[in-house]
Amino acid sequence: MGFPDTFRIPVSDTQAYRQFGNSVVMPVMQEVARIMVPHVQALIAHERDGTPLALPLFA
Fold it and tell me: In which domain of life is the source organism classified (predicted)?
């Protein structure tokens, strides 16, 4: 995961570390989104029919 070995860093090391610190590995974000989708869909469904929905703090 992450940047390929052929990736070139055209800035100073300091700037590169800042940029890498702000980066997110896309497969991780895809997995987070995959886990969230059913919960978001459940919230939308309950908002449509007006019934309250209590979600657990920890799954």
Answer: Bacteria
Per the CB < 8 A criterion, the answer to whether 57 and 46 are in contact is no
Reduce the secondary structure of the chain to three states and give it as a string. CCCCCCCCCCCCHHHHHHHHHCCCCHHHHHHHHHHHHHHHHHHHHHHHHCCCCCCCCCC
**pTM (2 decimals)?**
0.52
In Å, how far from its chain's centre is CA 29?
A: 3
Max CA-CA distance within the chain?
Answer: 55
